[in-house]
Poly-beta-hydroxybutyrate polymerase
Amino acid sequence: MTAPDTSPSPDTVAPTPPTSLTSFADHLDRAAMAATARFTGNVSPAAVALAWADWAMHAATAPGHQLNVFKAFAAIDRPAAAKAGEPHAVDRRFRDPSWDQLPFAWLRERFLRAQDVVDEMTGDIPGVEPHHRDVVRFMARQWLDVFSPSNQWWANPEVLAAIRETQGRNLVKGAQRWWSDARDMAGGSAPGAGPEACKAFRVGHDIAATPGKVVYRNAYFELLQYAPGQAQTWREPVLIVPSWLLKYYILDLEAQHSLVGYLVAQGHNVFMMSWHNPGPHARDRGLEDYLESGLLTALREVRRLTGNVPVHACGYCLGGTLLAIGAATLARRDSERPARSRDREDANALASVTLLAAQTDFSEPGELGLFIDASQVAYLEAMMWRQGFISGEQLAGTFQLLNSRDLIWSRLMRDYLLGTPAQTTDFTVWNADTTRIPARLHSECLRALYLNNALATGSLNIGGQPVALSDIRVPMFVVATERDHISPWRSVYKMHLLYHADLTFALVSGGHNVGVVCEPGHARSHHRVATRAAGAAYRDPQTWYDATPAMQSSWWPAWQAWLLAQGSGKSVAAAWPPAKPLDDAPGTYVLER
């Protein structure tokens, strides 16, 4: 067995030899791209120009499209056909009843009609590349949203009412909020998540506080084992694999929001991977490194500590994608059963696989795909070549732009125009606790998964062998969220086409994070869940949605019952504390900045 690595500084581990550029010309090209990326926010100007040129040239030679745009423009002043109050019901910016009063109703209607014009202008035109069409539409809608009446103090009835009620103090408080956010950003923190604001939620005390021990550490991750909540635990342990995009404690926030705490209370023996936050020295760590030295090593350690029983493995976001790759790799090794001792260790390692908001088919990645094409990836690679990683702050800007209506413009109105007092939550603190990603890992994921969709097409190779999700035989539970801008639920649903054994699919309310962290008793939560037995006919997403009733509750109890059904039903005495712990949970890696 592999002995725990207690090296105090993972960046001192000898890295993989750096990837060399093939010529001086390559070096020169990448340096020029990196310099340009510094002034464009890491956005490829070539990608943007190509999208607009493609759209403009085809639009100029499409008279039918031009006629439809003219009709939409002419309808801007036409009386609305919808019932009074309906537009603001479907657009969250205009939900307040005060928007139904003149002149605000008139401003709202003109803006919504202007959206229709923009949507018609940037809609389907014969010959336009779909990716270019989507980029143009996204950019046009972003510019239009700047001029939404909800973002103008003089055109927003909610802001005007607040000015009257507070004699303008809301704008003074909003200015103070803006100045506070500016200071946070200048200090390297996210707006509203500076050191003072985060004091109420300290990692290891108020969040990431479920008692446990660090039982293994190497250059890639720490393995946490949590103290049992009962004298007996279920025989099969649970291993959680978080994404390397985020700190693991999104699944261990305050006690009432902690999925880890819930599983422990239900009698499970829970392990968690806590990824190391890499620096420039880790620039050449790639996807296969994270699989072999990360996930598969963690799985072996969990089995070593629990008597080599099968493990319930659960992966979140890209951690789920990594888990799917790992499960397929193990399935192939099991079927071939070579003589190597490592493969005998891995035999029958999994009792089940759970994927939380994790894509495996990236052909339709949603709005995130707008930022991924050959040109854009080249610019990102040039930027990462210069610094050795991509930072969490650089990624956060992209994710905020994808959901700008809720994360940017609603914040503008709520914080700066209405002067709403700042509220720091466990989610706020976690969201501001960003991570870095090694350059090679990020590049390989962008090219192999997003650009080439290699996992879904069977062209991804691990150790010289293809990875096929159809090789997986253990039961699978897949969770998607209704309002996910990162892993759209219809994209997650495509697992039905790639995996042929028993598949339980759950669609839950909320977005990428809030939908997953949805504890029992959560207000207004609901979920749909159904199982497709092995060999059953495929149902398209809409048919599945229409046939599956919504249940008003958290999805956690349904998943926990499913875990028990996939296990042996046996319990064992909880052995605690572990024999040779390295540290107390949450360990040291989660504290790295």
Q: What stands out?
A: The CA atoms of residues 485 and 513 lie 10 Å apart.
